[in-house]
Amino acid sequence: MASKVGRLLVSAASLLLLLLVAPLAAATDVDYCKKGADYPVTVSGIEIFPYPIARGMPATFNISASTGDEISEGKLIIDVKYFGFHVHQETHDLCQETSCPVSTGDFVLSHQQTLPSFTPPGSYTLTMKLTGEQGKQLTCIVFDFSIGFASVADS
Fold first, then answer.
1. N or C: which end of the chain has fewer CB within 10 A?
2. Of 77, 79, 81, 48, the residue nearest 62 (C-alpha)
3. Taking a C-beta distance cutoff of 8 angstroms, is the pair 108, 65 a contact?
């Protein structure tokens, strides 16, 4: 009887741990800015950690992509909308977000951002453009993400 109770407690604790850890990272759906466009860089997925994003805490966006050509330089242009209203834009050097030159094949862009504690909670839409040499557009994607109600200031 005691061993059954022990196994039940271990099973319950394992299930609780899975429920607590599962929402900490999320893969999100990605759409291209221009439907049917033939971009030189294709994006296969985005993982956001933690999810939902907590205000005042670092969030990491890992973008899995592939290219048929080596990329030696570029810019990452990020545009954020909140309920359809433009709220933020920033530009990053591609070589700060991944190793350059980017070889032919699969690669990951990893961007970390800490949002201010006063950032409103809710749903946001992010547009990310990747440009290469002479400003040539390599890809353009759009995806949604959420910012939770909790923040560092709340804890």
1. N
2. 48
3. yes
Residues 137, 39: contact at Cβ < 8 Å? yes
Strand blocks (E) in 34-84: 41-49, 53-55, 58-67, 75-82
How many helices and strands in the chain, by DSSP H and E? Answer: 2, 10
The reply to whether the predicted model has a pTM over 0.85 is: no
Q: How confident is the model over 69-125, as pLDDT tens digits?
A: 999 999 999 999 999 999 999 999 999 989 999 999 999 999 998 888 888 999 999
**CA dihedral sign, ordered 147, 152, 154, 155:** positive
Retrieve residue 25's tokens: 């990272």
Q: How far apart are CA 115 and CA 59, in angstroms?
A: 8
Asked whether 73 and 132 are in contact (CB, 8 A), the reply is yes
Residue with tokens 């977000």: 97
